[in-house]
Structure formats: C-alpha cells, structure tokens
Amino acid sequence: MTTQVRFQYCVIQVKHALLIFGAAIAGQLSCFCTQAARAQVSAPQQSGKITATLPGMGPPVMDSPIFAHVLLDQFEGRTSGPNNELRWDGESWIGTDMNKLWLKSEGFSSKTTVSDGDHEALYDRPIPRMRYFDAQVGVRADLDSGPRRAWAAVGIEGLSPYFFQFAPTLYIRDGGNVAGRLTGSYDLLLTQRWIVQPEAELNFYSKDDPARQVGSGFSDLDTGVRLRYEFSRKFAPYVGFAYSGKYGNTASYSRQAGETTSDPRFVFGCRLWY
Amino acid sequence: MYTDRRNITRRLPPISRRRFVQGLAVGGTVAALNWGGWPASGEATPHTPQTLSGKHFDLSIDSLPVNFTGRRSVATAVNGSVPGPILRWREGDMVTLAVTNRLKVPASIHWHAIRLPADMDGVPGLSFPGISPGETFHYRFPVVQNGTYWYHSHSRFQEQTGLIGPLIIEPRGKDPVEFDREYVVFLSDWTDTNPETLFSNLKQQSDYYNYHRLTLPSFFSSVKKKGMGPTIADRLAWAKMNMSPTDILDVTGATYTYLLNGNALNANWTGLFQPGERIRLRFINGSSMTAFDVRVPGLPITVVQADGNDVEPVTVDEFRINVAETYDVIVQPQNNAAYTIFAQSQDRSGYARGTLAPTMGMTAAVPAMDPVPMRTMVDMGMGNMKGMKMGDMAGMDMSGVDGMTKKDMPASSKDAADKQGMAGMKMDRQGMTGMDMSSNSAKQTGREGPQGMAGMEMGSSTGTIPFPQPGPNTMPIVSMSEVETKNAEAHLKPSNTVHMQVGPQVDNLPMQVSERLNDPGIGLNDNGRRVLTYADLRARYRGVDGRPPTREIELHLSGNMERFIWGFNGQKFSSAEPIELKLGERVRILLINDTMMEHPIHLHGLWSELENGHGAFNPYKHTINVKPAERLSYLVSADTPGHWAYHCHLVYHMEAGMFRTVVVS
Hints:
A: about 20% helix; globular; B: six-stranded mixed sheet; 8 helices
C-alpha cells in the first residue's frame, strides 16, 4: 500500500469508529433532550401543580440549547531543516451545558508515514461540586501508519486554578494494557492579541508494544511554546518551537529503527476555532 | 425627539415600510493592528424615532436593512424604525395595540414594567404563545400608571437585533415635574454579529469580547504602582479562582456599537434648546448587555424620576444606568453653548454620544473615557472596603445567610423584642375600611381606573385590584404605626435557607456579602464627580401598601462565568420550580449576588419597592441592579394574578438560565 492509500484507509477507519460511537452518544443525547422537552411540555398538565410555563406553550427561555465548536489548537508545519512534518491537534464538541460529545484527534504526517495518530470520542459531563472540570469517558483509536489499537478512555478535562488547562486521561485495552496521558497548557498575554502559549503532552504505557514502537513507563513528551497573534479569537497564526522526546524502551525502539529520540523543531501554523 | 406638549397629533406610520435607517457609511474599518479603540461607525445625519400617540396603535414588526457600523446588516424593526417609534400613552386611557408580525419567525412585544393583566404582558410561554408570522395580536389594557418606560421583544434575542422602543405615559393630571422641553434619550447596543453566534462564542470562550484582560505589561505597571508583593498576591488571588478583575461586561465595544436614539457616534443625535430652559431628558437603557455611565459635562443633572416613578429631586454630575432602567433628569443650560451627552459603557470599551445645542450643527468637546475599572476583592466577596456596611459572614455553605437576612435591613429594624405583633398583620382590612375612599372611588370603573383603590380587598382571592402607582393623590392603603411594623417584622416568616454549593453552575460563593446601596459602583468611586447611588433615590410620594411583608424569599444570583451558565440559587430556569406568591400577599425578596458581575433584575407585572432606608418613601422600581457580592432587598405586593417573568435583564444571562417564573395565584 502506498502511504496515501494507507492514510486514506486510516481516515476511513477513524470515520467509522467515530460515526458508530458518535451515533451512540447522539442517541443518548437526543434521548436526554426529548426527555427534557417532554418534561417541560407535560409538566403544566399535571393537575393542580403550579408550573413555570403555561399549558401548550414553549418555555419563555431556552437555556439548554445544543452548541457545537471545533478547535484546531495546533495545525502546523514542523521543520528541522530537511525534515518537515505536519502536526495537527484538535478537538470538537457538540452538546448542551451538561451533556456533550467530544471528538479529539492528533497526529503527525510526514512524506512517508502518519504517526502518533490518536483519535478519541468521549462523552463529557461536568463533575458535580467542581467548577471547571468535566469527566470524559469513551474510546480512543490509534489509527495511523502503524498497527491499529483500540482503547477505552476515561479522564477529566478543564481549567485548574491559576488558569492552567489540564487534562489527564487513562486508557485501557485488552491484554491488561494501560496507558496514561497528561496534557496541559497556559496562555500568557503579552498584549490583548499577542499571546504566548507553553504546552506539553506526556504519555505513559504499562507494557511494551514493539509493533508501535512504544515502551513501558514514561514513553514520550511533546512540548512547545508558541507565540500567536489573535486577529480574532477564531483566527490566530503563530510561530514557535516544539520538542519531541522519547524515553526508556520507547527510545530504544526508536534507536533500533534508526530514528532520533530527541527532536527539536521550529513550528509555524495557525490556531483556528469555529 | 422634540415634543410640543400642547399639540400632539397622532401620526400613523405606513405599515411595512422598508428603508435604510442610516445612510451609507464612510470609513469605519477595524484597524486590528492599531488598537486605539473601537471603530467609529457609519456616518449619517442625526435622526429620532417618530412619536406615535393616542389610544390605538398599529405596529408592524419586520426586518430592516441597516448600517450602523459601516457594514450593511439586518435589524428587527417596529414600523421601519430601530429603535421603534416613541409611543405616548395617557394615564387612564384604555389602549389597544395591533401588533403584526411580518417576520418569518415568531415575535412578541413586552411592555416593560407596565402594570396590566398577565395575558397582555407579551412574554411567549407565560402570557401568550407569541405572535406567529403573519399574525396580528391585539393588546388591550387600561393604562394605570405614568412615567418613562420602554418596550421590547421577549422572544430569544430579538431585542438585541433592534426590537426595542421608548414608551412614555403622560400623567392624567398636571405633571408634577416642571419642564419646558423634553427629549427621549434611548441608549442601546448594536452588533452586526448574529446573536446566536455571539451566545455560542461566549459558551466556548466567556472572555471572547474582553479586550481589557490582564497582560504582562499591565503586571509591570501594577508592580510600579503597588509594588511587587501586593501585585503578585493580587494576581494570584484572582488566578486561583480563575477569575479576572477586568471581567466587567460580557459583551463589549469589541462587537458593540453604542447608539443614542438609534444614532451612532458620527451621526451625533442633537436636541435643541433655548438657554435657560428646563430640559427633561428621559434616559432609557434599551441595551441587551451594556450598563452606561451618563453625564453631561458642564451641566448638573437633577434626577426627578427613576423607573417611571417620581423621586425627590437629587442633583448629581453622573449616574449609572443598567439595562432596562430609566432615569428622568432635568438639565438647565444657561449659556448659548452646546453640551455633550456622554454615555460610556461600564467597561470603558466604547460610548454613545449626543448633543444638546441652541442651534443644529453646534457641538461640544467629547470627553475621554475614564480608565478601565478593575474589580476588587470586595466584588469577589473576599474583602472589606472602607465606608461600606458589612453583613454577616455568609460562610462557604451559605447556611448563615438565613440568620443574617433580617439584620441591618435598611427599611426594617429587627430590634423589636416584642413577640405579640400578629395584630399588626390583621390590619389590612381594618385599614381599608377606615379609609375615606370616596374621593377616589368616583373615578373607578373596574380595572380602567387610573388609581384603582376602590373595592380593594387585600388578602381575598377575589376582586383584587392592583394597587395604584403612588402619586400626588394616592393615599396609603394600609398604614401602620412604627410599633406595629416592628411587631410584624419580629414575626416575619424567614425565608427557607438556601444552601449554595460550588459546582458546574456556581463558580463563586462570596465569603462576605455587603450592603452596597451607597456605592455608586465600580469605576465611579472617587472620580471627582458626584455620582448617583441607589441610596439617593427617595420616592416623591408615599408608598401605597404600608403593610410589612409576611415572609421573605431569598434568592442568590449565581453563575459560572467560565461555562457561561447563569441562574438563581444555582439553578437554570429549565431545572427550577416557579416562585409562588399568594394573591394579595406582601413579600420581601432578598437578593444576594454571589457572582462577580452586576445583574439588573426585573420582575414583571409587579413593582419592586427597593428597601434603601427611606421607609414609606422607598422608591418603586421595576429593575434593580445588584452589584457583585451585594445583598439587597425589596418588597413586592402580589396584587395581580398570573404567570410573570422574573429575570436578569442582560439578555444573554437570561437566555443562559437566569430566569424564573413568578406565579401569583
């Protein structure tokens, strides 16, 4: 298979997985919504009870509508002279304040391979008693040029005190494989529109997976700092510096394959959301 | 608008007339890299919405191409005008309004703070189903009050797109306020952005429109001013809560163009005067999200009416008007000179401007906006400020709030240890019969009477007639002695304790809430000008319902800024029960603002008598601005049955859940 065909195959697989999971979640969501709507419509007909809306009328305000957003946090070229690769890291969500479907996708694409392809579909709900954190549960699919893997995922995501975006996630798959990921970022405002964002992603694995060149323990780090200019909130080109490092057995696999374990690069890209 | 009061003619507008509200714009593009302020808007000559007066009105709601910003956009207009025409009613008249919806979506018009039968209130879902496309709805009700009001859509975000307009009700007798000339000054905020998109943006990023956020340079300038230690401590305190001291308004001049009578800055709305004249300016804040700080540099401002009710004249240099409030003021320029009406948004991200001048074309200097204000720890409910009366410690679970509700309430002292006060509560019927009603009853014909006191049977389930608006000829329906009032207060049924917890819908619980009626508000302290406060508002006429309240209802204004969820007591409308009031009862509503933002709270259909320490002369309001970490109370006489809307008048807060139904039955 050529790379291109393989990549397309990957994309189809991802789409499949996401569609199935998405449909399941959407079903849940619509179930929630219709239940809520039914409750609101039928409530006034209960005998003798004073209700917030008049019979046969819709509510005076609609405070739980469905919103949808897509954020491409990293959409960038990474270069270290002769070697160029494309990096994407994005997420989207659809749903109400209390029930959302999240889709996340990230990966690297170079001339020959797609690597680190990670795609997740998660049901998201705010955690009671917490101001800014959501719990997320769902599936992760590793879909790229390497062998495919499917994981169950559970994690939290939100804004920790001092304005740190923070998302630890735990993954489990067959054979007792456990993995963990920690992502974090911070926005430092130089001006209202020039913003520096340091960010980091750390991965951990419980067992070696030589086919995917993943070793147990702390396996890899992707970190960077980006300076963006917000022409608007939704369109912010940036330049920056990113560093990818591999550690432990993961580093050994890379060395065996003749790949670097320490990869600093300049990046240029665009942060977009809709 | 200039109205010759002796010769008001009724002019019916052509229905569904489409026209450009303003001429084509000149310049006005956003210079993104050179951020010196928000762009000026489309240039045009000043204009004023036309005035319609009489007893019958034909109104048409339609879309209208407009250009306020230099870009063409589409507004929702009444009779082809944004804001809509000035409606002038007369107290005592039965008015009929045939409102035709020529939009493709349902619409509505709500008569803000007008005392009327609930099915005429114009709130879809509570009063009626709304006005379907192509349909005409006939409003018909007696006008039982006078003053300056306004009207607006109550359907989703239609008020943001322009379905707003002034409403003036002339008193039946002589107007107690003397003036030679009057103008409506209608303030509003306009955006070319679709309100649904705007709302969605706020859900994704709540500070989307805040371009006053703290930056690295502002850190260093603060270090220079306050020193390294305090600056770091201050930043950490805010950051720990994930809150920003520059979070003043959710939607700002980044997207808004501020309008005065529908005129953007360059159009410069101008009102003419002769030197020496007393000019009555009827300020109405018809914005969706913007509180304005208003002044007329060079002229003292005498406030004579607030929210349609006359107040004892109080002279100031400046006043804050939050969304949906109205203030009538008198200015009296003596010189043959022009004066600027300057209304800067509370967050200083923009302003609306008009001119008072002896001749057209004269202008005066436009002042620079004040510095961007910063919230303090007091706003977060975490600190004291000198000159401020502090309440009890509310505690993190707020269980202490119940205990504090009856303490240091401005209008009622709880020191009465006398426990035999229930006699006072039976006063209502006795007080009624003891009154000489003959002077008023002659005019009464059911609901149509302007001062409906006849047949008043408070507390009974039938035949309740709304209390009249206080005026020169009204008498208190029930008056109690001070001792009786104290006795009644002692037996006041306290509110159910509200247990607040942080969570997805509640991001802040103030450690300390305080009475802030003497506080003009953020950005207005120590600015060298005399600024109106709520404590200054003293009703010109004694309140008509002298009964003390029989119970208290405690409500926390709550929200999660980051998630852009708002509500009362930590609940959105959709998950909350209605607030039930018994027809005829008098209650105290106690508002505690747990959030970091001001909320103008509006109760439909009933007056809100703000307890600001003036006792029987507490002012009647319809929209009460509650500052962050503020605790205030007001009394409500539940004299009109029905389902009434009760909400924050910031339209995106309302639609995000800060809404309750109040059912009077």
